[in-house]
What does this fold into?
Amino acid sequence: MKICVLPGDGIGPEIMAEAVRVLQALDLGFEMEEALLGGAAVDATGKPYPEATSKLAREADAVLLGAVGGPKWDAMPREQRPERGLLAIRKELGLFANLRPAILYPELANASTLKPEVVAGLDILIVRELTGDIYFGQPRGIEVRDGQRYGFNTMHYTESEIRRIGRVAFEAARKRNKRLCSVDKMNVLETTQLWRDVMTELAPEYPDVELSHMLVDNAAMQLVRAPKQFDVMVTGNMFGDILSDEASMLTGSIGMLPSASLDENNKGLYEPSHGSAPDIAGKGVANPLATILSAAMMLRYTFGKEEAASRVENAVKAVLAQGYRTGDIYEPGTKKVGTREMGDAVLAAL
Ligand code: IPM
Ligand code: MG
It folds into this structure.
């Protein structure tokens, strides 16, 4: 049971330290080894996904990641940007299935910008395809054509890519409320017409799951209008990127949301849904709960340790019930704590 630990950039090292403490406290005998990814790797080696990191990530059973990126590296050539490291590790490990739950903890109902009655009890799972689409499509680039600059990218999906993410989503819906909404833009984009066709063809294999389809612009609207209509949503890489950020904010703080990116054998990379938050990095105030909950997802999906996963999730619920809050979820009347104190509280609750 080997875990490749990638703290990354910004608040990454601070939040990762807390997740590692939680894993150690469980005393399950994990072997954990750290490596560099993103800006930290660029600074040390000139590359966002160095060979040593790739080797460790390939050998390990799971990868736990903090966050990558920051303004320091934004002006670098595209090949050296931290985000490239993240895309490269997803692609190399074949992590095509990105699971992004958006759960509203009752204690945080006021942290949402939406009315409490619209979001109370919210529990959505976004299943995002992660290794295809316009993110990886060729050709791509910026060239000079006919005397002016010309930017281009290519959106594409094969039917087998759609089918395999579709199956993950149908299976996930089966374990939940048995409703799956597939999101596309079939009224304009052929790639996503194929997406809708393949999802429709899969449906008879899952007669217990109710499949519906929605155009992405409407889905973006429905997510803020009446988000509780959704159970599981499945969509491509780019739409999933956008909709999962939107869904996360329904819950009040992106600082609470974990994610899992899985390959076909449940090897996975686990990371908080939020970014590296360079504005608060190094101050000890970041919320470590999304990373701790990502570790719980790892226990469940890669290591099959359901009981340990629930223990961690219950400890997080307990600290919220006890009133502990980092700045991102603070409201008057609760106890404002920093990253380390939040980790301490989770350990105590464990
Ligand atoms: C995410 C992020 C990444 C993405 C960036 C950092 C490349 O926004 O994981 O959602 O677009 O996939
Ligand atoms: Mg994103």
In short: The pocket of magnesium ion (ligand 2) is lined by residues 241, 245 (CB under 6 Å). The mean pLDDT is 96.
